[in-house]
Amino acid sequence: MKFLKGSLAIAAALAMGSLTTTGAHAQQVFTWTPKTVAPAPYKAPNKPRTTLAEVRQKIPAAKQSKTWHEQVVSDKHLQASWVQLALGDQSPAMFISDTRAAFIVWEGEVEFTIGNTPATTNTFVATKSSMVQVPARTRFQMKNVGAVPSLHFEVFTADATITYEQESATLPKPQPGHSWQLTRQDPGAEALNNYSTNGTTLVNNVQHRNYLAAPSAGAFVSAPGLFVNAIRGQAFNCNMQSPTALGHRHLNYAEFWFIMEGQIQYNIEGLDPFVSEAGDIVYVPAGRWHSAANYCPGFDTRIAINPFPTGTHNWPPTATQPNPPVPPVSGKGWLD
Question: Which pLDDT band, with edges at 50, 70 and 90, does 317 fall under?
Fold first, then answer.
């Protein structure tokens, strides 16, 4: 026990000493991280790149002008879909019990009504490139108020639980093994614009922004279970990244991107490099190396979406030696 305490004291002293250095190197930590021998597989409906044209091809001709819903992302953390609303159609009035949802309007005009009381309700019309978020336990409804079918991309957590107001005329079929019961829901006060961790504000969450009307990089949603972050830049040529550009990987969560403008070139482990365009959805499973770069002259924006606002980025130790010799393996892991 004395030896353990002494070791901890020495480690603490070394750690405090390292914090006196300046720059990013003071925050670097090298650890041995697990990596699947074969790249983590893609599981349907997830694909490396999903174009809007591919999504539309799946919709039967009889439903082309009607309301439809096509899921393109589904994993243990998040689910995302393209949704078309027919002329005049609207969603039911809904609440999400414990997490937020995010929306990107891509075609037409979608009226959002968000709020629990008349005094707090905000109604606005979202058009192409509008980004909208709804806090937990907050009533919201969407309606197509334009002259053509509307199209939007929506993101929910994988375990999102939707509830419906008492005044609902009808209810959807409950999940298997469930029934509907009326309960009192205390909305609480999940503030829209002051989510913080350890007292430090991460982002000034806003309910609605039209991205292309005033494009800029920065987080749009930063909350437990959902991070939506606009990354903007420009390239000065149309050169592909070096195939040896690994980028980074995430140990415990997948990530995907909505391409808002321009073109983004991707290197994803196990795949040939490719270029994505506005309206594409690009997905990488947990554990795969991935690197994104702006492509061709002009501004490019990708909306990065993942479940952890402060998620870990695992980088190779050096660009030229991503796999140094591994120490001998013996025994079990701490949690085995």
Answer: confident
Residues in the chain, how many?
A: 336
Closest of 278, 275, 242, 223 to residue 102, by C-alpha: 223
Q: What is the pTM of this model?
A: 0.88
Q: Where are the alpha helices (DSSP H) in 46-191?
A: 52-57
Placement of tokens 């991280």 in the chain: 33
Q: Which helix or strand (DSSP H or E) is residue 17 part of?
A: helix 2-18
Whole-number Å distance between alpha carbons of 257 and 225:
16
**Tokens 């019990």 — which residue?**
97
Q: Distance (Å, rounded) from C-alpha 254 to C-alpha 75?
A: 8
- Cα separation, 46 vs 50, whole angstroms: 8
Which tens digits make up the pLDDT trace of 66-124?
A: 999 999 999 999 999 999 999 999 999 999 999 999 999 999 999 999 998 888 899 99
Q: Which two tokens stand for residue 25?
A: 């190197």
Burial 5-16 (b: 16+ CB within 10 A, else e): eeeeeeeeeeee
